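Appendix B, record 7
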Amino acid sequence: MNSTGLEALAPFVAVAYTMWATPGPNNLMLAYSGARFGVRRTLPHILGVLTGTVLLNSAGIVVLAPIIERWPAALLMVKVVGTVWLLRIGVRMARSTIADGPRDEEQPMSFASAALFQFANPKAITAASALASLVLAAASEDRWLLPAALLLIPALCILANGPWAVAGHAIRRSLTVPWRWRLFTWGTGGLTAGCAIFLWI
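Structure tokens (predicted):
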């Protein structure tokens, strides 16, 4: 593969990192989980986001776009499921109690839940659709760019999402004051639930 061919993936890399690194449901939940449970207990959540992102974008490149184009009702189903999931998660985050440690029954998001959530995450779906078009356009000139793009996704995802859990953990001590914790949980929970709006506009 020559350098000219690899340069064709520059838009894909730039858009992927920008979309995955900026605030959205994944990053808000990872920041919350990092502050609530610490980075080590948040690792399954991070790996779930990574796995779900790889699967979603692979599906988007290979099958998602043609399915939605052929059956528009499939997009409506994704919107409804995504709205319910985001509202449920946002409310749970906002109602979380003081940051002196999670309750015994409270657990960070599991690997499977985080992976499945990507298929109901409005930002992830939007990103997958946009990235699919960028990859397919580049691959029309060089077929080796398709597998190259798929191989880049895990590294880009970790670099974009991982720091949010670390940042959440870093501010953990400052959140031991009740009003600060309440402000943090209301903010992250409200913004997470509010992301559902983007499914309908």
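Remarks on this record: The mean pLDDT is 80. The radius of gyration is 18 Å.
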